[in-house]
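Thread: Modeling a multi-component assembly for a lab meeting

Hi all, long-time lurker, first post. My supervisor asked me to bring a structural picture of a complex we are working on to next week's group meeting, and I have zero experience with this. I have the sequence lines for every component (326 residues in total). Could someone generate the structure of the whole assembly? Inputs are pasted exactly as I received them:
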Amino acid sequence: MKPIYKIALFVVFFMALAGILTGLYLFNLQHKDLKNVKPDFIITAVDLQKAFESNETSANSRFVKKVIEVSGTIESVKAGEDKSLNVALKTGSVLGSVICTFQSDSEASILKVGDNIVIRGECSGFLTDVLLNNCAVVKGKS
Amino acid sequence: MKLLSILILFLVLPLTANAQKYITKDGYIGFFSHAPVEDIKADNNQVASVIDTSTGDMVFQVLIRSFHFVKTLMEEHFNENYLESDKFPKSTFTGKIVNLSDINFSKPGTYNANVEGDITIHGVTKKVTAKGTIEVVDGGINATSKFNIAPEDYNITIPSVVRNNIAKIVEVTVTTRYTPLGGK
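Re: Modeling a multi-component assembly
Sure thing. I ran the full set together rather than chain by chain. Output:
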């Protein structure tokens, strides 16, 4: 075989390998730790709930699927299934709170009712509460 | 949509004088798909539900986007391709406990419940029945149920390339802890 074909074969082989590895990487990709992701919006829990209550459609198109950094006072901390944690932030609304779901309870010790906190989460939308998922604590009470 | 939510959650249930309503906003609904290629699991810990113990009425509401998958690509396909959560962001169940007389909500204990109602997924509404348990505890009610759903029934089309990765029948698990409405 001429050297040029050998090189060509080599290149094709490596491109195929790179393709397969990229595919596998993308397929197995897990959620990012939002601590290290720049937020799309920085807002208080009060204003976030207000935005959804006054116009859900426009708030949906603004906030859903976005990373939101929300600040507020912890209203309740509840354990969910599979070691998940639901932290509700006070909004002053009779309708609901901003509910932040943590996939793990590893930060439970720094989440205390009445504390002021800054949490980053991905917005899923609104039922009677604004719902954030995949949450992480950005700034808690030290 | 906001009005609709309030309507469904609070007003659909008859407002009788002795109505006993219990509520949760942190309920759990998960589903599990077992297929030869892989098992897929998704969790939603943001389930809103109200139960009226005087009539047996039950209402559930979830956002499709609140379902959490371990793999982000799966979550993306679930939202963009299968459930089309931009078009159909919510899923609801409105139904009734049909054997209400078997359950004594004022006496702590575990009771079997049969529930019938309408479930809406992906814009398609179907009648479903499910068996579950109601546990009356101090200061609240715990409810659990497991039932099966066929994605095909809700016009959820799964491309042939990945058909062997996703089960024809998906097992749904519901776990909710209710507290009296108005109380904390």
